[in-house]
Every structure is written in structure tokens, then in C-alpha cells.
Amino acid sequence: MQDVIRQSITAVSSVVLGKEEQIRLAVSCLLARGHLLIEDLPGMGKTTLAHALARVFSLDYRRVQFTSDMLPADILGVSIFNPQTREFEPKDGPVFTQLLLADEINRATPKTQGALLEAMEERQVTLDGLTRALPDPFFVVATQNPVTQSGTFPLPESQLDRFLMRLSLGYPSAEMELKLLAGSDRRQLAVNLKPVASGEQLQHAMAEVRKVRASRDLIDYIQRLLAYSRNGGLFVAGLSPRAGIGLLNASRAWALTGGRDYVIPEDVQVVLGPVAEHRLQSLAGGAAATATQKLLESVPVVRRQ
Amino acid sequence: MARVYQVPQHAFIWLITGSLLASIPQMMNGPVWIAAVVLFLQCWRVLVQRGRLRMPGRVLRISVLATAVGLTLYSYGTLFGPDAGITLLVCAFNLKLLEMNKMRDAYVVIVLNYFVLATVLIVRQDFLISLYVFVVLFFVTAALIGINQPEANIRARSQLRYAAALVAQAFPLMIFLFVVVPRVAPLWEMKSDQKKAKTGMSDSMAPGEVAELSRSAELAFRVQFIGEAAPKPERYWRGLTYSWYDGRRWSQALPQNISASDVVAYPSRFKPRWYSDLERSAAGPQYQYRIILEPTSREWLYAMTTPFIEQNNIGVVSDYRLISASPVTDSLSYTVKSYTRMPRGIDAPRWEKEFNLRLPAEGNPRSRAQAREWRAQAGSDDQYIARVMRMFRQQKFFYTLTPPPLGPDQVDDFLFRTRAGFCEHYASSFAVMMRAAGIPARIVAGYQGGEENPLGTHLLVRQYDAHAWVEVWLPESGWVEMDPTAMVAPERIESGLEQALQSQGSEFASAFNEAIGVSRLPILKQLASAMDYIEFNWASIVLGYDGMTQTELLKKWLGEVSPLRIALLIAAGIGIIGLFFAVLLLWRGRRPSLEWWQKEYWRLHSALRKRGVEIPDHPAPGRLVELVSAQAPAAAEALKQWRECYEGVAYRANSANLNGMNKTNSFDKQSLKRFRRIALRNIS
Amino acid sequence: MPKLSAVQQLYRRWLRRRIPPATTVTLNQRRIFILPTGYGMLFLLIAAMLFIGGINYENNLLLTFSFFLMSLFNVAILHTFRNLSGVTLSAGGMRAGFSGRHGALEVLVSAGPRRSHTSLWLQWPGSPAREMSVKAGEEQRTWLDIELIHRGRVFAERIRIESRYPLGLLRAWSLVDLDHWCLAWPTPIESAECPASGGDDDEGLHNSLAGNDDFDGLRSYIPGDSLRAINWKSLAAERGLQTKVFTDPAEGRRWLEWDRLAGMEPEMRLSSLCWWVLSLDEANQPYGLRLPDQEVAPAIGLDHKQQTLRLLALFGVQ
Q1: pLDDT tens per residue, range A100-112
Q2: Residue B227 and residue B329 share a domain
Q3: Fewest CB atoms within 10 A around its CB: which of A216, B371, C75, C93?
């Protein structure tokens, strides 16, 4: 199983160059059954990453480009009247897929965003009184332009809590940039990727994540991190219990991608940024990342008293 | 109307219990109406708490108070003085229960409750009442905790537990203060009308009076021998001597030209010549013992013959007895050394000898004639004394508590007609026979014998051990004690009154038992003697702890007793005891203690810091190892193993999923320690 | 802020050094003050009276009783201190309000893992106290009202936390500055003219402004209309194909502008903008806000409203 995971990561890395850590995090997020938010400027390979992930894990893949005139129905689907049968027939929206790439989610109006995010949370869609479950697994990889860009509706904090992780790819290194320029089109490469894991294998890996051991010392560490985020005076509001569970699951998945069946504090420290930063607002006013770093520095890994 | 403060239910239980219990002793001691007033007020308060009644208005409260004041005036004739004061206090305190309109009132009730409880100890000080007061203290303290906890859903019992902890923690300091705080002299004279005249010896004696005293089983005093105990025949506890005889009554007296100060010495202050001489001639068997005297309201103290003492306010009188400078109103403890066989008074002053020869001009002609006749026949005083003693032993004399009445010539009537009497009859007639024959003699009154407590090393001397005997003066041996009663009823001296009366005839004994109410059930007797043992220790250790004992103790501790040293000792004691509890209360239970591997991590961490390795304040164990290995490659191998071991224990094995499975593996523990040592060795 | 006397200033400075402001404060010996209460004094007085009584009556038990009371008092010092020591106070949430009215600040009171704390009283100076107990390892939250005396950040005074438990003989207290502030929005003041640009109409709210995707009505189907816009229900009702019409959301967003209120006092401008934010929110109309140095893009919703008000509250505040 660990081989499969490692191979998947390698495969995605062959398309998205020089971003091993982000890829491993993205895979961990998937394995922990979490939704992923990628925040970056346009053209940084967000779409490529999402597509590659879908290919490698042999997932159904759909991409929706969000715009400001988009309606909830454009994502969830509509009921269409069939004159022949004189009945309404549901016409599924793009949400009925295993991996949905929601591109530039912050271009849509809050109403449309809300519709998607609700579907993410409930893993089901209700159309005209008919509730239908979404496929399993169901992942949303949403991309978002940095909030400062004009013509956007930033996701409110309450919605952000629904994404397990937020990643940022960033510019490639000079070496990788050269490779990128020399190589062929990345998107095309992603489309041509061969699946590494079957759907069954993915399900199995996700089940493995839950079996990764978290010791009492480790859970205590996570608890102290959560407590400090609430009381430490670093953030406007501390991490929610949902975030706490997410942190533990993400750490488990990260440990598994590293080939371990138990979690060590380093796992927690690695995933804390992606899991927590988008949910927190620094009290001092600076970047949440700085405050999160401060959180890590303030909470002893090993209980002191 | 102002909102009435509602005492929390959980506090109310203890408040009402505490106030009722604190009032009970006064309800039993004081006039009957107090009980009625207290119960009336308490019932009212309980009904108010239950919502059945309302708090009384001002008019009613004032009228209850006025009634209480009136009844106090009626019962005591005054509103002042301890008795009336305590009565009023108890009434006012219970009335305050009906005036708890604010939380402040509840505080006042509780603080007054402490005060009322304390007044109980003015009246009685025995162990049982102290225990009672102590138990009530719990309830009052629990009530105080309760009113400071306004939440409704508190279990009342939890306060009692907390109160017990507080009271228990208050004890060490209390005992310390009790031992070291100096006993200052009274600031002003206190007159207690509680101390009425008690049963006991009086300063004169007429036939039948000691017998009357013998009907009481009340405790006179306790004796604790320090070292060897005096044998039974020597246990004659002298209290008084009677030198003046008016034909019926013997009294204490001194000739007109002799003043009391000439015959009394206070050895702790000054030793007059006669006392020093007496001290110098001390010889023969000696016994040291402590006496805890019950309050007598009299000055005289009891001791075996030729007592020596050096204690404040206790004097020695030239007729070899002890007196207190002031009447004994609280139990008094004193330590005496007695030389029971030493000769004394060989060089007695002439006035003393002459004074102790006096007889009324007339009366008792037969006895006087008999005395003169026998003295003439006898070759010496000794032989004459033996002759008189033989009379008591050989002729048919009876020892009885209920002697027949005597005519005007009491000695004649007793010696030649009734021949039935108690010790005072024998002592009196013997002394008259001596004086009539020209031998100086006087009556000694006190107690004889005492009952040994089976549990302790002390004797109990009760009123029925009261006794009278005689002291005669002989030119070669000075004053010598003689006991004519021993001739008639030797059991009295050997085994006590009960035995003596039994051997004389059972009807006397049963009458005696009935009179003094001694239980014949063995279990009750055992219980009584156990109780007595406790009471004895209570009296001798706690009640008897006085300035003298304190000074001696402090001398032992401090070497020299000065106010500065005592102040320092008190300060140090308070500090040490306070610190002890501070540590106990604040340190303990601050945080859950660390697991052994967590301690191991911090040990390694601080050791690395000490060796100058640069590491963050609290890195993850793996990160720590990486950082250190980079700086000190020599230790890398050991550190790697340390890390594996640590992560194995802390993160792999100690799974939170395995409910509470947290077995300490001693092998892991040892390895972790070993790897740390190896790593550190490679760093330094 | 009222002017303070020299002594008060000295006291404040001393307090600041001793208990520096922090968002989380755990009470310890440095931060706790302890003195007897009036009842404590009465208690000691009674102990002293019993001592004198014991001396005068030469009664050892009265003395013992007096020593007991003193000793109980001594023990109570430790227990009262212990009841407060180890309590952690943290600044919690904040409920902003309009300047001139009340806001509220949340205070978290938590106990250490082993020790419970009974009957703690919390209050700001001058406002009613709140009583609470915290069990070991637990946390209690309470909202304390704060008067918003000016716009911007209103810093809370030091919180007084006090405990007399268990015996009420001593009062242990601490004055804690949680560095806690409450946001005070401008006082909304009604103004007739909407200081807005954009939207369908610049005149103001009189003509209803369409939201971006508000349903406006039905018209006959024109080939080329989106399938999604077809009103299938009217087809089912045999009324022919009809298309749902929505008002155009892309343009016409309303911007509330600072510059449009030229000639007014700055505070007055803010108050007016505040009133309009509230009314537009009430009317469910999207709006944006443009201040000289900052702006919020037009949107609608609670989060948006909060963000806008926050901007107004902190305008020009350091």
C-alpha cells in the first residue's frame, strides 16, 4: 500500500515539477478525505495539479470555471421537464463527480459558493426536494486567486473551515523553471498520466489512514496546540474542534505518506500550516502563517510540567 | 421591604445544627427558661427556612429580647457577671438567627456562634466538654464555608468534609501557640460566681463531719508519682492540722502572738531559716509526685509529710503542709517532693508544744483520769502511747459511717459508752488522751490512700478517702504521725474505705455503695477507669500546663528565655507550619506529573543546553536529534537510537486507542537512559 | 478618559509593572493580593477577646480556643489564596457595538488540571459582579458588558477577580488587564441622501436596486436562451416556453463613498455611512464602501456587514 502511495506522489511530481512537499500534502489531504483549497496567482499549475491527482488515483474528474454570473444550478444541476413523459427529470450538475476542480471559486457570488460548500460538507445534494448522495469518494479541489485581486468575493471564514487544507504552490525554482520551459505542455502531460492506484486501492489507503496510531502524548500535544490557539492571544478566534479533528486526520495521512503507521509530532508540525492558516486570523494583524509559526514555537512538544 | 437574604440550604443545615449545639450546655446549666427561649427561636427559624413562617417583625424581636432580659434579671438579679452575661449572649445569639436579612447577619451569627461556644469552656473544662466543643466547631466552620458558596446545587456533606480539613490543618499551629505563647499574668481581677463552695475539708472538724464527707465519690485530687510510688501505708495526704479543741470541735488556730507570716514560707521567693533548717535535715526515703487538685475554693493543698516545693504562689507551713496563696478556683497542678520518714520538729518552738497541750478547762473527766492513771503506770511516753493504742485494738470498738450521737462529754461518751465511730472520733479521743497525759498532740486532716487507676500510673483520691489522724510530739523524735483508726480498722489503711466497711458488716457496705452510687458492673467500671485515665491526662497535660511548665520547657528549647527569643520562636513556628501547609496545598496537585520518558526528554534537553549545544526551547524529539547530530556527529549514532526508543515509547506504543494501556517497560526505560548517557559522553 | 490624580497614576503604573497586560494571565503569588475582610477583623477581634478572657480566668481552654481561631484564620489565608491561585483568565470574543451604547467582551476563566476554584467574582470597576465556579480542568465563559465611550477600539479596564471562599475571612483579589478591547462602530445617524455611486440609479434607495441574481419576471422564450433559464414549470402548465429573467448582476454595484459627504465633520460622515450600511443591509442590497485609504468591494451578508462596520470603526484609529 505504501508503495502505491509513493508511486502516486512520484507520478504527480513528474508533471508538477519541484513541488514534492505540496504534492505530498495534497495526497495526504485526499487520503484524509478532506477538501483542498489551492491559493495562487493564475498560471501556477493549480489546474495541472488537480488534474494529475485525478488521473493518478483514477478518479472521475470535472472542472468548473467559476464566474460571477454563475448560479447554484450551474453546479448542482436542474430538474428538466420532459414533455414526452410529462415528468421532471433531474439533470446532474458537474458536482456529481469524484474529483471536482472548482477553479477560481472566489469569482462566484456568495450564493453559488454557498451551494458548493454545502454540498462539500453534506456530501449530498437536494434538488427540488429530492436528495441525492454524491459519489464516494468525493473531493473538491478549489482554487482561489489571492483575495486582493479585484472582482472577487472572498470566501468567508466559516466556509473556509470546510477545506481541510489550503496550499499555495508558489513560483518554481530557477532550475525547475528551465525544465518547465524545455518540456512539453504540462496540462497535456497530466491528461496523459497513467493511473497508479485503482479506486479500490484508494479506498483501502483511506481506510489505512484511520488506523494510523496517535499516542496519548501526541493527542495531548494537539490538544495543547488547540488550546493555545484559543487562549494564547495570537488569533482573533482559536481553532474549532472540527479543525482539531482535521489536524489529527491530516497528521495521520501525512504519517502514512511517509511510510509510518504512527504519528510523530513532526507530522503535526508539517500539516499545521496548511490545516490551520486559512481558518485563523492573526490578532496582531500580520500573516496567519507567522502567527501559526509562533504557535508552534510557544507550545512545547513534550509536556514540561 | 428589603429583600431577605436566603441562607443557602446546604449552609443552613450546619448553621442551625451549630447554633443549637452551642446553646445546649447553657440550656442545661442555666435556668430552665433558656431552653424554652432557645428552642422557640430555633423552631421559628427552621420554619422560616421551610417557607412556613415569615421573619418576625421588629416589635416581636424587641419583645423577645425584653423578655429574655427580664428573665435574666429575675434569675440572677443582675445583667452583669459571667453567668448572666452568658445567658444573655445565648438568647441574643439565637434571636439573631431571626434577623438574618443580609449576608452580613449570617456572618455575625456564625462569629457569635464561635463566641458562645467558647463561653461553654468558662463553666466546664473537662475532656468530654472539650471534645463536644470541638465537634460543634466542625459544624460552625462548615456553615461558614456554606454561606460563602452561594450556588444552590451543593451537597451539604462536602462542606463538612472541607471544614474537617480546615479544622485539622488549624490544629498544629493551635497546639504550637498553646505551648509557646507566654502565659501573661491576669490583666485584672476576675470574680467568678460559678465557683461556689465545694464539698471537701473545712477549716474545722467536729465528730460526724468527715463521715458525712465520705458519702461523696467526687474527685478530690489525682496523684502521679514521678519515679517510685510511695507504699500504701505511707499515703497520708495532709491538708490541715487542728490545734484548737473546744470540747467538741477541732479548729485551725495559732496563738495570738504568732502571726501567719511567721509560719508560712514561699520557698520560690524566699526561704526563712526554719525552712532552710528543715531542708538541711531532709533524709530517708523520698517520693516525688504531681498532684492535680480539683477546684476547692480553699487555700490548702495536699501532700505527704514533709513536703518540699518550689512553685510560684505555693507556700510551706511550719506544720509541714502546703498552702496556695489564693483559693484554688481552677484545677491546680503542683509537683512535690516528700521525705516521709525524716525526723521533724525536734527543736519545735516552745509555744507550739504548749499550744498543742491545751484542753478545755472542764469536761471529759473519765478520760482525763484514765490518761493520768495510764501515764503514771507507763514508764515512758512511748509505752503510754502503746497502751492507748492497745485499748483501741483490744477493746470492742466499731468503725462505722453512722455512729450513734454523743453526749456533752464527747470523748468520755465515745470511749466508755458507744465505742462506734468514724476516723474523727478515734483521732479526736486519741489527741485528747495525749494532751491529758502531757504529750503535745494535734489532729491532721486530709485524705488517706487513693484508688489506683488500672490504666495509668496515677491515684485517684476521692472525697470518701477523707481521713483524720493525729500527730504527737516526742522529745527524741519530734512530731510523729499516729493513726488510731488503723488499730480499729486496719483494712481502711490497706484497702480503702469500701473494704473496711465490708469487713465490719455487709449492711454498712451496701449502704455506703448506695450512698455514693458506685456501679458494680465490671464493664462500667472499666469504662469509668478508661475515661478517668483520659480525664487525668487531660487535666495534667492540658489544663495543668501553666507558666512554670512552659518556662521549663522553653528553657529546654531555647536555653535562655527572653521575650526576644520567644517572639522569634513564635515567628519561626508560624512560618514553618505555614510553609508546610503552603507546600502541601499549593505545590501538590498543581499539575499532573510527567511520564518517565517525558522527564527523560527534558533531562537530555537541559544536559544539551548545559553543554552549549544550540537547540530550540522545545523541539520535537526527532528534530532535537537531527539538530544535535549536525552539531556533534560523534553522538549521532546514540542519539538515533535514543530517538527510536523515545518515539517507540511515546508515540508508537503508548497509543491513546489502547485504553489506559500504559505499562512502563523497564527495558525501554533503561535503554533510553543508556542512550542518553552515551550520547552525552560523546558530546562533552 | 477622566483625569487621574498623581497618586492614581502612580498606582496604575505600579500595577502595570506588577501585572503587565496580556491576553492570558494565570494568577500566581505575584498577581494576587490578599487582605482580611471586615468579618475577618471581627473574627480576629473575638479571638483577641477570648485570649484576654483566657489570660484573666487563667483558663487554658479559652486560650486554646483563641489560638484555634487565630490558627483557623491563618489556614484560611492559604486556602483563600489557593482558591484564586492557578486561575487562568483569557481574553475571549468580542461583541462590537455602536459608540455610545454597550458592547461586550468575553472572559474565559479556566482552572488547572487538578484544582477547582469556587465562587469567584468577576467585574469591571463600576459594573455589577458576576459569580462563577470552575471545576478542575474545566473552563467557564462569561460576557461582561462594556460601555463604548468613543468610536474605535475601546480598551477594557482591569478586571477585578475576587474570592473570599472558603471562610469569607479574607479577600483575595487580582486586577488583570487582558489587553482586551471592544470595537465601537460609529453611532449611526440617519441622513436622507445616500452617499452612493453606481447601481441602477445614483439618486438613492427610492428606486429599488436589483440584486445580482434577483428573479425579475418571465418573458417568452427566445431561441438562444440558456436551457437553465427556462421556466419548466410554466411549460408543464401548458403556458408555452418561458424564460426566467434576472436583473443583470454584473454592473451597477453600489459604492458608499466618503468623498460624497464632503463638507461634513469626519465623525458625522462615518455616522452617516454607518447608518447607510445598516439600512442597505436591512434592505438586503449589496453595497461597497470606499474610504480615503481603504475600500470593501460590494457584497452582501453578515460577514460583509461586519467587515464594513469594522472599517468604519477603525477609520483613522491607530
Answers
A1: 888 888 888 888 8
A2: yes
A3: C93
